[in-house]
Amino acid sequence: MKELSQNETIGKYIHDLRIKNKMTLKQLSEKVNLSPGFLSQLERGYTTFSLNTLSALADVFSTDLSCFFTQETSSDSEQCVARNYKRANLRISKGFQQYTLFSQMHSNKMNPEIYEIYPVNEYSETVVFCHKEEEFMFLLNGSLEITLGDDVFILNPHDSVYVPPNTPHSWKNITDNMVILLGVSVNP
Fold first, then answer.
1. pTM over the 0.70 mark
2. At what angle do helices 6-20 and 51-60 cross, to 10 degrees?
């Protein structure tokens, strides 16, 4: 049996999610603002896709973006181990990189992630997050200024913070070295 390419594997997974959610290509296309023809090609692995496209699809299917990158079949016990070399990079910006720590979560309710936050420089940008998930963050190293609603806090190594749902929050690395932050969001 022929091994599927990454595009074919992701396309098949999108097709399976669409069928599981009892959606037609037309219904899905209206939700993600893409043509049914493009989605059909995507499902068959005939075209490439952007992270924005996958992100929009993940939102429609109420799943994590990283689920598109890990559909390998393995034993139940193997699915409980996440390998560093299989980690999906979810976002790269001028201020940080975001990685999923475990994209094979059985429930898809808990999303553990690592943020590598760069020192502030002339290219830095402040990203304000606000989402329906509640989130727990734990600072592994460095110092971080975190804004939670209207309040500003300085976190030091091993400090943690809880972010309630729908609370605007942002951060700034206040050191000259990369800061590493563990974040775990929980879907409602």
1. no
2. 20
